[in-house]
Structures are given as structure tokens and as C-alpha cells.
Amino acid sequence: MTAGTGRIQSWGGPIQEMRQGDIVRIPPGVKHWHGASPTSSMTHTAIQEEVDGKNLDWLEKVSDDQYSRGASVAQQQQKTQGESAMNKEPSNIKKTFGDFSPKLVQITDDVLFGDVWERSELSKCYRSLVTVTALIAGGNTEQLPFHLKRAKENGVTEAELIETITHLAFYCGWPKAMSAITVAKEAFKPQP
Prior knowledge:
Blueprint: E1 3-10, E2 16-19, E3 32-36, E4 42-43, H1 64-68, H2 73-87, H3 92-97, H4 102-113, H5 124-137, H6 144-153, H7 158-172, H8 174-187
Antiparallel strand pairs: 1-2, 1-3, 1-4
Helix pairs in contact: 5-6, 5-7, 6-8, 7-8
């Protein structure tokens, strides 16, 4: 997304909101629709492969009913998140530190990952880049593998992360960049 707010839905799935900076990947052959929200225009760049001389199949138009089901997407997502929070498995931090430091676990899960990471003013892609940059600048490489993985899940490419580390060598110092690139090289190894 290059500007505005939009919606996307894989056929039969939930309608999701898209914001500037978000990167959305749709696997080949997945029927979906996307467009602007009712209150905002949107612009985006689309990249698709060409197969047998075709790069897409236009399907039927999205009906007003299908589109309007997303009118309360945000409220429905908040309700669903609240309900799923009661039924979901404990977070890794809760499993690791829940008995030892319950308050730190609670504010990490509820405030950091529940509130700060879910704010819409900054896309998760950019939020990941900020987090990785702050960890490298502070020399906190012990948390870097988790956040490099999370950054990739949020749409940041390995090439962009490597370039970020290279760029930071000039601002944070060579030793911090070299420590970070060592961690990244290990984190980016193909998993067997």
C-alpha cells in the first residue's frame, strides 16, 4: 500500500484492513478482492507473475453486500481478538517467564504486543524495521533473532534487513553492525 486505507479479503475469509506501508502477498490461484475503505481512497503497487501470457483473471464484481460486511471490520476484529485472547495458548514469554515475573509478562503481552504493535499509525513492516534498528543500535543482539523473524513475517525482506544493518554500520558503529550481521546470517539460514 502506498497511501490510504483499504480492505482485502480472500474468498470466504475475514475482511482485513490494509494501511500505507503494508505489504500483502496473495499466493497464486487464491480468489480475492481488494479495494479502498468506505472512508479513504487507497493506492498500491501490484506485482504479479505472467503465466501463459496472462498475469491475472478478472472475476465477478464484489457486491455491495460483500463490501459492506466490512463496515465494522475494526470493531469485529477487536471483539474477535478479545474472545481469542481468552482461548489462545499462552505466549512464549508467558511460558518462559510467567511464574518468575508475571507483571513483566503481562505488560509485554498486553501493552507491547497487544497495544503498541497493533496500533495502525505505523505499519507492522515499518514497526519491525524500527525495532530491529533500535536493537542493533543498542547492541541488544540477544533479541535480534526473534525480531528478524518477525520482521520477515511482517513483509520486510532479507535483503532489506541486510541493507539496514549495512547502513547502521555508519551510524551505530562497525562492531554493532558486525555483531548484528553475524546474528542475521545465522537467522537467515534455510531451515532443514
